[in-house]
Amino acid sequence: MSQDHDVSLFGYRQEFERTIRSFTSFAVAFSFISITTGIFTTMAFALQSGGPDSIWTWPIVIVGQLCVALVFGALAAKIPLSGFSYQWASRLTNPVVGLFIGWLSYSFLAIVVISVDYGGFVLTAFDPLFNITNGAHTMFSLPGADVSQDVLVTLGVVIVQALMIIFSTKLVEIVNNAAVATEIIGIVGLTVALIVAVLVGSDGSFSNLSSTGIVTGPWFKWLGPIMLSTLLGAYTIVGFETAANLAEETHEPRRIVPRAMWTAVLYSGIIGMVFLIAVVVAMPTGKIPELSASSTVVADIIKIQLGNVIEKLFLIFVCISIFACGLIIYVSQGRLIWSMSRDERFPGYQLFRRINQTTRTPVNAVVLGWVVAAILLIWFSDRVFDLFTASTQLPAMYYLATVLLYIYTRNRLKVEEGYFSLGKWEPLVVGVALAWLIYELLVVFGPDVFHKAAKYTIGMTVAGIVWIGLLWIFHRRSLERMPALPDDPAAAETAV
User: Fold this and answer.
1) Is the pLDDT of residue 217 over 90?
2) In the chain, how long is the greatest CA-to-CA distance?
3) Residue 268: domain span
4) Residues 6+ apart with CB under 8 A from 161
5) DSSP letter at 115?
6) What was the pLDDT predicted at 494?
7) pLDDT for residue 495
8) DSSP code at position 483
9) What span, in angstroms and rounded, lies between the C-alpha atoms of 306 and 300?
10) 31-64: per-residue pLDDT in tens?
11) Tell me: the pLDDT tens digits for 368-416?
12) Residue 184, SS3 per DSSP
């Protein structure tokens, strides 16, 4: 069966070129996760909320998210289409459920682009590289917001990413593959260098691994340090589903995409854990309070242990890694907008379902992404922490919705022999994924400090419900039709 025919079985025609192969699919998932981005961006919060020993919550997140990725793999093997959870839910339940989950996914992708490009690239890598004070140099003011130099730099970064996505998918693949290789080599090399520096020099201590740092009080209390510190991993280990979002551009997606997702989580988890141990061990014990108060704590530790030159070289490598992370997030956002618009379910779908016949990219959807990014950036520029939190709340919500979807429809997810499935491990994998996501939702919504970010999350959720209501009133036919799943009599009987 040809790949084009595989898409036609779901009621579509092939509109993208299938250029993505095994390593690129893995690189897409690994780059979105980007342990460099996550650790650089949230390490300060981890030290402030849980202390240096907060890194031991990382394995908990890895196990939980790995099980989520395995569940997603089973769904991707059955329905290899752009739009991932949106498509899965639309075809396994109904388009209303699918659109709601798709809207949550879009809300996450819209905010996480800014979280990564502004909070990660500019504030924790670009500014330290050029010795710029975060938030300095207000360029001009708008009603209710000051537009700083950092905001303008971020908008420029997003423009560059947009142009790359619009004009060449192949260029995006090349840049991302190179960035992933660089990130892996760089993180491993830096880990070794930090450990050697501690062993040879007098600064740093392995006792830091059991230190609570500046954190006092019961470490295991309800919504206390142990729970809050899981945000370090929860913010980082997300986005692996992007491999599924590019399924229509992937060779043999039923085989390649599931493996790309779970291996990206596993390798990110292992490499990230070793790097976190090296960073914490390399913290001079006497400077833990000072480092905990820094927004660029990882860069500061590298400078202390390896010197200014190595710090600058590493920051260049970090800029490359975080830029690639933002780039892939942006790609995924455009594909999701296009996927929902193709089915006449995204606001302005008439415009955003178009594929440019020259570049073979969804140009209008990409442009929309930049406009939304600019609005959100100006809105959130003085509330960076809320960016991180909202970027953790939303994926937890649609991950949980997708796992519940799997539980509800697993009897319809039989795949051909040789394709990915959970098999005899299904009860354990699904049970762990479900328990982890419920726990994560309690963490990211419970504490008062997260309630401001929840306003965006709740607001976008309500906006999605309102949009579905408007479609139901004025364009109901778009919510009543979805091609049946191939070889699924149950879907064929219930399809409208």
Assistant:
1) no
2) 72
3) 3-494
4) 117, 323, 326, 327, 330
5) I
6) 41
7) 38
8) P
9) 10
10) 999 999 999 889 999 999 899 999 999 999 999 9
11) 999 999 998 888 877 888 888 899 999 999 999 999 999 999 887 776 7
12) helix
The burial of 297, by beta-carbon neighbours within 10 Å (0-12 exposed, 13-18 middle, 19 or more buried), is given as: buried
The residue ranges of DSSP E strands in 236-361, in sequence order, are: none
Q: How many helices (H) and strands (E) does the chain have?
A: 22, 2
What is the structure's pLDDT at 11? 85
Asked if 244 and 72 count as a contact pair (C-beta separation under 8 A), the reply is yes
Number of domains, the chain = 1
Structure tokens at 404: 């519940």
In this prediction, residue 222 has a pLDDT band, given cuts at 50, 70 and 90, of low
CA pair distance 17, 446, nearest whole angstrom: 44
CA–CA dist 336, 472 (Å, integer): 21
Q: Is 148 helix (H, G, I), strand (E, B) or coil?
A: strand
The pLDDT score that the predictor gives to residue 489 is 44
Given a cut of 90, whether residue 23 has pLDDT beyond it is: yes
Mean pLDDT value across residues 147-172:
91
Residue showing tokens 């364009």: 475
Mind giving me the DSSP string for 53-106? GGGGGHHHHHHHHHHHHHHHHHHHHH---TTTHHHHHHHHT-HHHHHHHHHHHH
| Cα–Cα dist 384/382, whole Å | 6
Other beta carbons within 10 Å of 199:
10
Angle between helices 95-114 and 308-342 (to 10 degrees): 150
* 347 dihedral zone (left: phi>0; alpha: psi -120 to 50; beta): beta
Residues 321 and 315: their CA atoms lie apart, in Å, by: 10
Q: Distance (Å, rounded) from C-alpha 213 to C-alpha 138?
A: 35
What CATH number corresponds to the domain at position 107? 1.20.1740.10
Q: Which helix (H) or strand (E) holds 145?
A: strand 145-148
pLDDT at position 2 over 70: no
